[in-house]
Design a protein that fits this description.
Transcription Regulator spoIIAA
């Protein structure tokens, strides 16, 4: 069965870069790609992740709650810089707050240069 998303992973100096894309995002799709990201993080012992999402259609609050629970359980204590190529600002802000309540340090950015600078600081 073909995946409903594409995921590119790249080890960069000091962090893992991930680009997740597809036509529509769901909590199930997000769980699948976060499992892949976490697996790579465990393999290379990374503490920092820069993720770009490229999904024209985003999720609602209920799916975002499930996604935050999943990421919090998988990657507690990690630092995640987040870019949404489609600027779903309200739902992303909710996701950031939920992730932070689950011991994930997350910040939202509009470009990779600022995201990388924040990610590598301290």
């Amino acid at each position: 069965m073909e995946k409903e998303y594409k995921l590119q992973l790249e080890e960069r100096d000091g962090y893992l870069y991930a680009l997740a894309s597809g036509s529509q995002l769901t909590a199930t799709i997000a769980s699948a790609y976060w499992n892949e990201i976490a697996g790579k993080c465990f393999d290379i012992e990374c503490r920092r992740i820069l993720i770009e999402k490229d999904f024209p259609e985003s999720v609602g609050p209920t799916d975002m709650l499930h996604m935050a629970d999943h990421v919090g359980a998988l990657l507690p204590g990690r630092k995640i810089a987040f870019i949404d190529r489609h600027n779903h600002e309200e739902i992303n802000e909710l996701g950031k707050k939920l992730a932070r309540n689950r011991d994930v340090v997350m910040q939202i950015f509009s470009n990779a240069a600022d995201a990388e600078k924040w990610l590598l600081a301290n």
